[in-house]
Amino acid sequence: MLEFLTRANDGDAIAILKQDHEKVKELFDRFENTDDLRQKKKIAAEAIMELKIHATIEEEIFYPALRKRGVEKDILNEADEEHHVAKLLIAELDQMTGSEDHYEAKFIVLAENVRHHIKEEEGEMFPQARRSEADFVALGKELLLRKQQLKKNGVPPSDEDKLIARGGIADSPARNARKASAKKVTAKAKAPARAKARPAPKSPAKKARASGRR
Ligand SMILES: [Fe+2]
């Protein structure tokens, strides 16, 4: 019965999170070491699912427990922001087919961001957490239970998913910026001459000075 719960004894919460870290790092290496796009897409899909589940259990269970136990707010806030950036990139990658110009670059930047995040968690956050009085075995059981639920039912859409769904993906921010500036130049060239003659609206300070002179 619920044999995954007994496996929690193999490791406490920190050990479980470290196992997740090893798994995603291995997937990142595999992504970078293959030239086969089909393989890359398969590896990316697996890594993204792992990361979504991992971020959810940390945000729902692990980080709040550490906040209660007095782990430094700055460390936890920074971790939240790193999750936020990773989730924005994941939301964009989720909408890509893999054939886009920036698909590979986006995944590599995600991997770099997560590698840095892992370094900080393992180097600063986890040692501080260890010194707290948290019950890591009980926390570990909670993490595993939630993991199972998320694997079975799927991970609910994040705020970042909703944001990207509204705004669309930035496949190439630099190229988009070039296009936007080209459009501006064309629009300016087409604008009627009398538009130029229209006086600029007065600033509130200018208005105040003008009324004072009357
Ligand atoms: Fe994390």
Descriptive labels:
214 residues, mainly alpha, binds fe (ii) ion
What does this structure look like?
- It is a single chain.
- The protein is mainly alpha-helical and 214 residues long.
- It has helices at residues 3-6, 13-32, 37-68, 73-94, 103-131, 136-153, 159-167, 173-190, 193-197, 204-213.
- α2 packs antiparallel against α5, α4 packs antiparallel against α5 and α4 packs across α7 (159-167).
- The longest helix is centred in the N-terminal third of the chain and has 32 residues, at 37-68.
- The chain is elongated and about 70 Å long.
- The site of fe (ii) ion has 5 residues, from α4 and α5.
Give the helices and strands, then pairings.
Blueprint: H1 3-6, H2 13-32, H3 37-68, H4 73-94, H5 103-131, H6 136-153, H7 159-167, H8 173-190, H9 193-197, H10 204-213
Helix pairs in contact: 2-3, 2-5, 2-6, 3-4, 3-6, 4-5, 4-7
The structure holds fe (ii) ion (FE2).
Fe (ii) ion (FE2) binds at residues 58, 79, 83, 117, 121.
